[in-house]
């Protein structure tokens, strides 16, 4: 902006100088004419009016010359001021340029430092990528193994729940039967341990394992049987009906005559009362 203003000022100064030069040339022409009149005295009388006109012209030209000279001096002063301002602006621009150059240099240094850091990190990650991948694979393998173990536990729990559901369904099916008919059918069964019906047994029974007594005639009236031994040897639905509200998982299918026995009699040949590993069964 300052340079544009200075250029316009230069053009204006040149124009004023050109006008001054023109006025100076006119003044020289007038002086030459005056000298010519002085060399021909015979024409002095005739050119009296011309002399007067010449003087007026010279005066007028002198006044215009002075005005133009003052304007030229004013423009010269303004030009010097503009030069000083232009020099100051150039100095400030140079200082700003140096400051900006320093800032750009520092920014480039910071950017280069960040690039070097990223390159170093990338190289470190690239070197350790295989190790990290192995660790990640081991982690997921361990997680899969844990999930498989948990799945096995859930499957086992599901099997137990299915067994319990089957037991409750069997109990539900038997609940609709006449209790007296069921009791009569079960009490007429022959004991697996003795060859006579259960109804002929003594009324008071005792278990050598838990030393609990129960009455054989009242076992169908709500009395709980021994916790460890099945007496009488009936099937599980009937036994579950005699023990309402309890689910015992220790009951094992013997595979012989459809009877069940407790897990304490772990061998088929030890199913007799005198063969239990917890001691003889005192059924008589």
Mean pLDDT: 63
Q: Which class do the helix and strand fractions yield? A: mainly alpha
Number of E-type strands? 4
Q: Biggest sheet: strands, sense, closure? A: 2 strands, antiparallel
Instruction: Figure out the total of helices.
Output: 4
Q: Low-confidence segments, ≥5 residues, pLDDT <50?
A: 37-45, 188-203, 214-233, 242-276, 280-284
Structure description:
There is one protein chain. Helices cover 64% and strands 4% of the residues. The chain has 284 residues and is mainly α. The protein folds into 2 domains: 2-112; 177-275, no CATH class. Helix 1 runs antiparallel to helix 2. The chain is rod-shaped and about 175 Å long.
Write the layout of secondary structure elements.
Elements: H1 2-39, H2 48-175, H3 179-187, E1 204-206, E2 213-215, H4 236-242, E3 251-253, E4 260-262
Helix pairs in contact: 1-2, 2-4
Structure keywords:
284 residues, mainly alpha, 2 domains, two-stranded antiparallel ribbon, 4 strands, disordered C terminus, coiled coil
Kindly summarize this structure in a few lines.
With 284 residues, this protein is mainly alpha-helical. 64% of the residues lie in helices and 4% in strands.
């Amino acid at each position: 902006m300052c340079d544009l203003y200075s250029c316009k000022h230069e053009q204006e100064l040149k124009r004023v100088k050109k006008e001054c030069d023109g006025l100076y040339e006119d003044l020289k022409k007038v002086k030459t004419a005056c000298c010519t009149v002085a060399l021909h005295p015979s024409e002095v009388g005739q050119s009296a009016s011309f002399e007067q006109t010449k003087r007026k012209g010279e005066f007028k030209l002198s006044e215009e010359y002075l005005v133009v000279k003052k304007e030229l001096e004013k423009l010269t002063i303004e030009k010097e001021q503009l030069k000083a301002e232009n020099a100051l602006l150039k100095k400030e621009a140079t200082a700003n340029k140096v400051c900006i150059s320093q800032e750009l240099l520092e920014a480039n240094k910071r950017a280069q430092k960040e690039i070097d850091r990223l390159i170093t990190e990338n190289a470190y990650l690239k070197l350790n990528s295989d190790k990290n991948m192995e660790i990640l694979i081991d982690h997921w393998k361990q997680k899969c193994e844990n999930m498989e173990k948990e799945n096995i536990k859930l499957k086992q729990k599901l099997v137990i729940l299915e067994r319990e559901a089957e037991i409750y369904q069997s109990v539900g099916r038997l609940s609709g039967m006449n209790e007296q008919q069921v009791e009569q059918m079960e009490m007429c069964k022959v004991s697996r341990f003795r060859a006579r019906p259960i109804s002929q047994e003594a009324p008071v029974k005792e278990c050598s394992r838990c030393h609990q007594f129960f009455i054989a005639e009242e076992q169908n009236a709500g009395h709980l049987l021994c916790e460890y031994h099945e007496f009488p040897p009936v099937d599980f639905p009937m036994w579950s009906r005699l023990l309402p509200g309890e689910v015992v998982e220790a009951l094992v299918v013997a595979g012989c005559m459809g009877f069940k026995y407790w897990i304490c009699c772990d061998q088929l040949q030890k199913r007799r009362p005198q063969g239990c590993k917890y001691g003889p069964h005192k059924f008589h």
